[in-house]
């Protein structure tokens, strides 16, 4: 039976297609959990307007929609061309230069001034998501002299990738710094950090956000370059989660490796108890068409089977013709797939063991008890740590995360299997448990006759002190 409660969360990219209130409202009502703002496009004025729109509508609907700032990251791009583009033919010579020139069919500028010093003969440079390939012949201080391996039409400001080469660009560009300062002002709930290469990039970003007073933002590292694959374990450890950004990753590594890497990264994140988001081209055809292709349906379902925390829509909702239909399709595919997964069995055979601390032990016991009694889980949490710890075990049971913090409530809305609700602070555990049950009933998450397993911590109101478990019949 298909449940009305979806465990896998949905991230929707905000853009021109969502500017109409009726569209964004319908997306929220159809299952959107998080609004992603892509700072590779738009300016602060447009992002502010859309952020305020999201904030207003989520308040109107009473939905804890999270917000995510997606950084532009340390990208390299081409400059502009005469007439907006140039056609490159296979075998011809072409020059990439650090000089500020208007591009032609023989030369164009690049944004990274040290690129000639960091590539050498026979290095392959990919442009426009790999559609155009150049092989380096030689370099000098300002120029890279290339032969075109794969030609095509090259347009303004296209991305450049250099697979297998560790580039020395600083992780945060001046634009990223400005965008993050704006993000701290607006109080985004998540940052998705583009082109993370190592744990040091994550640590540097976290240090910078803390210097802005933005200490409780959660950082998602986007895995989209070969360096990130090499350093994946350390990145997972340093970040609050990762995004499998299959678009750029498919340029940096052989495309046939993408499904394998996706499964490996999801498994590693599940074992580490971290968010993992599967992204890029999930329902790409719905940018123009009202229904997804069979391959896209299977792609989303496979990510759910793999155990992804969330799936993401990009152009489908930001600029597509059918943003609401895309969210509805994603929701239906995820819920239908989840109905076929035996989470109880997976939990029993899982090699995931609880850590040697009280919170993990109580979380493990909570899931075991809930499965034995076919019960709903209610966790009263100050920081969201316990709810995420329970979520890590991927229980069959619904997890209701009760919190007094609006920020934590929104952040939990991106965690697998958690239904976050706001509650009030109470002076003793009896009142707290009763209030949590009442709030859950008010939201139609449980009803009379249900069994619930409730977790909380004593003393009340202190983060990370979960040490209690109670079973109650409603």
Can you characterise this structure?
There is one protein chain. The chain is α/β, with parallel strands linked by helices and 474 residues long. The protein folds into 3 domains: 233 residues, TIM Barrel (Alpha-Beta Barrel); 86 residues, M1 Pyruvate Kinase, Domain 3; 130 residues, Pyruvate Kinase, Chain: A, domain 1, CATH 3.40.1380. Helices cover 37% and strands 23% of the residues. It has an 8-stranded parallel β-barrel, surrounded by 8 helices. The longest helix is centred in the first third of the chain and has 18 residues. The mean pLDDT is 94.
Write the layout of secondary structure elements.
Elements: E1 9-13, H1 21-30, E2 34-38, H2 44-61, E3 66-70, E4 76-77, E5 85-88, E6 93-97, E7 107-109, H3 115-118, E8 124-127, E9 132-139, E10 143-150, E11 152-155, E12 159-161, H4 174-186, E13 190-193, H5 199-211, E14 218-223, H6 226-230, H7 232-238, E15 241-245, H8 246-252, H9 258-272, E16 275-279, H10 294-306, E17 310-313, H11 315-318, H12 323-338, H13 343-349, H14 358-373, E18 376-380, H15 385-391, E19 399-403, H16 406-412, E20 418-422, H17 429-442, E21 451-457, E22 466-473
Parallel strand pairs: 1-2, 1-17, 2-3, 3-13, 6-7, 13-14, 14-15, 15-16, 16-17, 18-19, 18-21, 19-20
Antiparallel strand pairs: 4-12, 5-11, 6-10, 8-9, 8-12, 9-10, 21-22
Given the C-alpha coordinates, what overall shape results? Answer: elongated
Helical content, roughly?
25-40%
What is the CATH fold-level name of the largest domain?
Answer: TIM Barrel
Low-pLDDT runs: none
Going by CATH, what is the homologous superfamily of the largest domain? Phosphoenolpyruvate-binding domains
């Amino acid at each position: 039976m298909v449940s009305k409660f979806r465990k896998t969360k949905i991230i929707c990219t905000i853009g021109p297609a969502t500017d109409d209130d009726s569209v964004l409202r319908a997306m929220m009502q159809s299952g959107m959990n998080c609004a992603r703002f892509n700072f590779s496009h738009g300016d602060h004025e447009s992002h502010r307007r859309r952020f305020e729109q999201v904030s207003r509508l989520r308040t109107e609907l009473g939905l804890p929609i999270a917000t995510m700032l997606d950084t532009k990251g340390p990208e390299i791009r081409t400059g502009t061309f005469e007439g907006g583009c140039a056609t490159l033919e296979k075998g011809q010579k072409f020059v990439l230069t650090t000089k500020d020139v208007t591009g032609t069919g023989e030369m164009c500028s690049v944004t990274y001034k040290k690129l000639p010093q960091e590539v050498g003969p026979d290095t392959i440079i990919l442009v426009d998501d790999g559609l155009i390939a150049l092989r380096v012949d030689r370099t000098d201080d300002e120029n890279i002299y290339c032969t075109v391996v794969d030609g095509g039409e090259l347009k303004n400001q296209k991305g450049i990738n250099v697979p297998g080469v560790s580039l020395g660009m600083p992780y945060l560009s001046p634009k990223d710094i400005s965008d993050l300062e704006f993000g701290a002002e607006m109080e985004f709930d998540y940052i998705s950090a583009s082109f993370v290469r190592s744990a040091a990039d994550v640590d540097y970003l976290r240090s910078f956000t803390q210097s802005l007073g933005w200490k409780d933002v959660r950082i998602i590292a986007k895995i989209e370059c070969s360096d990130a694959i090499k350093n994946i374990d350390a990145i997972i450890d340093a970040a609050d989660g990762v995004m499998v950004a299959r678009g750029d990753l498919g340029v940096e590594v052989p495309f046939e490796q993408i499904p394998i890497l996706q499964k490996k990264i999801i498994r590693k994140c599940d074992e580490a108890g971290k968010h993992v988001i599967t992204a890029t081209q999930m329902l790409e055809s719905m940018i123009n068409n009202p229904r997804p292709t069979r391959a896209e349906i299977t792609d989303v379902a496979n990510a759910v089977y793999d155990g992804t925390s969330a799936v993401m829509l990009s152009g489908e909702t930001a600029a597509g013709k059918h943003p609401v239909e895309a969210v509805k399709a994603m929701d239906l595919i995820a819920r239908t797939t989840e109905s076929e997964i035996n989470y109880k069995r997976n939990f029993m055979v899982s090699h995931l063991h609880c850590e040697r601390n009280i919170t993990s032990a109580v979380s493990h016991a909570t899931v075991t008890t809930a499965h034995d009694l076919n019960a709903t889980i209610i966790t009263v949490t100050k920081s969201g740590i316990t709810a995420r710890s329970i979520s890590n075990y991927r229980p069959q049971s619904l997890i209701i995360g009760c919190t007094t913090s609006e920020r934590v409530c929104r952040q939990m809305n991106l965690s697998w299997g958690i239904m976050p609700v706001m509650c009030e602070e109470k002076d003793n555990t009896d009142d707290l448990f009763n209030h949590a049950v009442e709030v859950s009933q008010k939201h139609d998450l449980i009803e009379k006759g249900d069994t619930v397993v409730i977790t909380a911590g004593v003393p009340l109101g202190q983060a990370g002190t979960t040490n209690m478990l109670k079973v109650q019949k409603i």
